[in-house]
Target: DUF5117 domain-containing protein
Amino acid sequence: MITSLRLKTYVQVAAISAAALASSCATKKQAASTVTLKTTSTPGGGSTATATVGAGKKEGIKKFSDLIGKAKGDTGLFTTYKVDGKYYFEIPDSLLNREMLVVTRFVKTPVGLKSFGQQYGGEEVNDQVWKWQRHDKQVFVRVPSYSVRADSTSDMYASVKNSNLDAVLAAFDIKAYNKDTTGVLVDVTDFYNGDIAAISVPDNIKKQYKLSGIDASRSYIDTVRSFPINLEVRTLKTFRAGESPTDNSNAALTFEFNTSMLLLPKTPMKARLNDSRVGFFGQRQVDYGTDAQKAEVTAYIHRWRLEPKDEAAYARGELVEPKKQIVYYIDPATPKKWVPYLIAGINDWNKGFEAAGFKNAIVGKEAPSAKEDPEFSTEDARYSVVRYFASDVQNAYGPHISDPRTGEILESHVGWYHNVMSLLRNWFFIQTAAVNPKVRMAKFTDEQMGELIRFVSSHEIGHTLGLPHNFGSSYAYPVDSLRSKTFTAKHGTAPSIMDYARFNYIAQPGDGVTHLYPQIGEYDLWSIKWGYSYFPGNKTAQQEKEALDVWTKAKAGNPLYYYGRQGTSIDPRLQNEDLGDNAMKASTYGIANLKRILPNLEKWTYQKGEEFDDVETLYNEVIGQYNRYIGHVTMNIGGMNENFKTYDQKGPVYGFVNKALQHDAVAFLNQQVFTTPTWLINREELSKFDNGTTLSRIKAVQVNAVANVINASRLARMYDNQSKNGASAYTVANLFDDLRAGIFKGKLDEFKRNLQRGYIDNLKNLLNDDASRSFPGATPAQLANIGFTPINIALSDIRPMVRVELSKISKSLPAGGDALTAAHNTDLRLRIKEALNPTRPVVNMSMGAPGRLTDDTAVKQDNNNCWPKTTW
Model:
């Protein structure tokens, strides 16, 4: 997807930090209640189990013929019947205790619903594994857990089973035995009509709209269809609602759901063990069946099951088709002109699978019409679909659903929001218009937009193949290589399309660069080879890992094959929206291009008879892009490089960014940010839309840059560097000297005065902030892992250094000057005096230890969320 998540409170940090550290980001799980049966409403909009499904008056077990009569069954996974408005499942004994993946999706939702990732038809509500299990005269739906395991041959197997009891989701009375007593009949009407957590509206939507239970008179089961390996149930449920996204007078919200129940393979796919050096989504289990003298965590990657049709030919090195091709269908609701580009983005991955020895491994197709295939449904869990949402959300995302036993990917529904085109247009314009005359227009051609859609399609499909974001990829290409026409024509902007390496903002006029966006690159081919190569014979997962380790070590040290995780603000190489191996150099080129674009906004977006909305939008995009460049540079200060390794690899896992680069980063800020960026103040363009807010935004960018630089977590790493490396470290003393030289020199205009006040106020926050705050639920090591390096400000060297810095500033302020200058300097002295000798309670503005939550220290969840309103 396209989003980075900025958190505002410590409670949010704790919750999301844990999620970022522990979870795969490809699915949205909803906790199952231990018993979900017939329900009654509760004041908070939730539901409470009150009775066993199908209970009430005990009728006993009837004859099958007496109950079903002449009703015709729909044969498939289970044979299903509808009799007098009731729905029955005939469950064969052979399918009792078999694991089945159950996926519930919205089919239709109320207009205006706001719940990101769960608001449009086709989006997933929940997925869960069920086992239908018979006990005496009842059938239970059990929900197994896969968080702990032990092999059945292990001495620990019995112990693990005893402490890992499957929850009971629902219970059904047996209504009849089938004709040859090889199966039982249960009534599932109340179950599917009920407010069951696993197959109903998610709790967050219930709370948001104050839903207080289902109105049975306005709810029903629409269809029940059975197929050979799956069963599909479509329901319509109307909830009593205290709030509505559009019209509270209805006092109700109606949703349509589809619940797919898909039989999991009887023989699970062989799992592939995860490796932190190669990026894949995955899942973790505590494995008590190993020889390790501890409770060992085992991690498996998520991948499709690809097996060659001809193993002998595959072993000879020939490209071989898989036994089962990966197929994605394009939603029939998709505008026809974009369908070929979406399909092309899917098919582009075939060259990745060729690296793993497969040909024609993946294909995109138009969804069949009802006439071509009356049984096809975009909600059916057997099919992977690119769903098109009529939405003003600027986003797209690529989730997948996997077998929790092994990580086998079973299906995916890519979410494609119509308005992602607006984001693509704005960003492609702002990042390339200086060198790309084709985008100097109010509306792109269909061909130009189609190519951008193809790029996004490839990125999102990559997620559905198991690939997370690789934020370290773009660092592999030298900045000046991205100014080369031949290099970019061959390589694009990064070795991985899974990076957030958007469009080539580095190329300058005259360079002749025309290929300006990412493509499936060297790293992508390598990761698909690593994850999908087939090993013949009966090798164990551990034996396969040993072979893969040899491959991985052979690529170590080559930046083309480097994987840099998302979710940390420690390593300046691992950033979104950046390009090249030197942020200072790249950002200087980028700003040079923004200076060329800004004066031409009105000219290049001219639309006869239209108001200046486009000029305003793109002017704000220029400021936003400038702010991204500042963030890219700032990450170098107090930064550490992270290179995951194993015992048999030499060199450090963590090492500090060298002193010269950190100094260069501050020099960039002094020149490009703390010296007033007058080029951003284009009076002619501003006069078309600005009513007095834009200059304040530019001031805020400058002050926020200061806050980012001197946040406590960054300073903590700098002190750590100094303790370990002495004179070779870029120290806090160096930082303060360099900042002071930039912030308190030069023309003292309104921007510089605002900046100086901001610097002193941020120093004041460090001096007087309450350092006793904590992040509940997260350890110091976990916090440091994502960039919130803990430090006790009160006991650290930060406050003594801040006091010295404030004193130096106070002593350096000149006397005299014009009235405004004199007033400003007097105010600064008073602010410094108040900081050093506070006379009133301090308002915590920097959010305390261990550090500010700022753009470059934001905790980011992947969740395949690639394209938010302001950042992908």
About this structure: Residues 2-52, 842-863, 868-872 have pLDDT under 50 and may be disordered. Residues 29-268 form one domain. DSSP finds 25 helices and 25 strands in the chain.
